[in-house]
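Justification of resources, computational component.

The compute hours requested in this renewal are based largely on the per-chain cost of generating structure records like the one below. Each record pairs the submitted sequence with a full structure-token output. That output is archived, and it is also reused by downstream analysis tasks.
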Amino acid sequence: MANHPATTDRAVRYRTVKIDNLDIFYREAGGVDKPTILLLHGFPTSSHMFRNLIPMLAENYHVIAPDYPGYGHSSMPLVSEFEYSFDNLAKVVLKFTEALNLKKFSLYVMDYGAPIGYRIASQHPEKIQAIIVQNGNAYDEGLDNDFWKPFRPFWKNKTEENAAPLKPLFELAATKWQYHTGVLDIEAISPDAWMHDQAGMDRPGNKDIQLELFYSYGTNSPLYPKWQEYFRTHQPPMLIVWGKNDQIFPAAGAEPYKRDLKNLEYHLLDTGHFALEDHGEMIGNTINQFLARVLPTLVGASK
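The structure output for this chain reads:
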């Protein structure tokens, strides 16, 4: 059990907790007496993607952002030592919330964070107070674009031949492409972000990890009906802040949420995949306003 006191202001603390003999690094800010927001990062980044958002939320909320195994400052066991699958990452994150005694929380899910967070939410709906979605799919719509075409043969047949077209996505040019594509003002994008992500992938053995998770991504869409049923049945308040120019998860993936969520606030932003990089202030302000509206009676009740 982690017993660290959280900060009572915007100051961020950088901590580590043991989960199944893995060191799971996380960023934490805000008072523990306030509702908790769990921030779940995407590929190929880490909790670093939330570096500017956390202080914006910490004045009103208890904010927690972990790194998954294989990412950021968390342990990076080899693929022969750890099962890199979305099922397993969700199990680690769930155990992480239990170690920090997070009984109830809001989820911020982005990219890989969506299939991890939605596994947890659909299995433990009693824990979820609200969901913020930034470019994370729970519907087949939006996954029929050119980016995903080379993935489908690999999901069907995990061979070196089918893996080869995917491996360039682990290199610097592709990482930079994710940050720059669809952005109106590239000068607003800090190169520290994509250089930080690339440094993580360039560690020996990490690209093997990323390839395993590319393969495991094929296990997500069969679970979409289960997640959609969770949305319809439990109706978590949801905020969508989606970069509409994203070529990985385009706006078509955001639209179907409207079918199933009754309490949905919806924003399409004129930017790309990593919307926090150039729309961080808008997103932070919107989250604060949204949670103030949907959680007015829950202050102090997130533990």
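Confidence is low (pLDDT under 50) at residues 298-303. Residues 13-294 form a domain with the Rossmann fold fold (CATH 3.40.50.1820).
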